[in-house]
Design goal:
Blueprint: H1 2-18, E1 55-61, H2 83-90, E2 92-93, E3 99-102, E4 106-109, H3 115-129, E5 138-143, E6 146-152, E7 158-162, H4 169-174, E8 183-194, E9 197-203, E10 222-228, H5 230-234, H6 240-263
Parallel strand pairs: 6-10
Antiparallel strand pairs: 1-2, 1-5, 3-4, 6-7, 8-9, 8-10
Length: 264
Amino acid sequence: MKRLFLAISLLITVFVSSCIPHKDTLYIQDKGTSIDSLQTIVEQQKPYRVQINDILNVRVKALDQDNVQIFNPIGNGDLNASGVERSYFDGFTVDLHGNIRIPTLGKMNVLGYTTEEIEQMIEKKLLAEEFKETANIFVTVKLTGLKYITTGEIGSTGTKILFQERVNIIEAIANSGDIPVTGDKKDVLIIRQYPQGQKIHHLDLTDINVMQSPYYYIQPNDMIYVKPLRQKAWGTGTNALQNIGALATVLSVITTTILLLQRI
């Protein structure tokens, strides 16, 4: 009986430690103030600067569209191609030297510039070499979708593309099937590309202050990695009911085994 008591005590200890606290499953909790307090959240997002292998969508408009037709894709490609595929073939890829090639204008270095700055550069060059001020040209430059990668303990892993100017980490995760109970929301990793190489940034998605982080908004080519909680490695249930069921089964087996051994 003493052994049975020790075994039961050990199992109960394991059961308690294997439970995932409810507060660890919630997003953006206000941990510092009361529920009815007023708090101003200051969003921080620096303008994105173009990197190597980015694909830019460039459009030029004018009073006479025939004069700028060469700068805009005709759209007679593969009719079965998706919007993402068409963007890939019609867009301007930033090469290893940071250049894009534009008809009649040739190579332009865009590495490290924002899309707004590139618009001004193209417009200035067009007015200097191809058009007069009276042409009223209008240039727009956009990234062909915001591409990012999700991996680890998340609903759907792989490459994702969202056609938005701004995407925060919560939106990106929601678009990837959310983080299950066994995923660590308190230490989500953002692996980001920089000219000098890659850097890893840590975000606590359970804290409302994450919205003030400079990494709250993701950037193109970010990798989002969600670590599994240790409970996942232990193989315990994802909720209390499953844990209770597992505990009851193990206790039943141990009790039966001890009773059989006592009869021998």
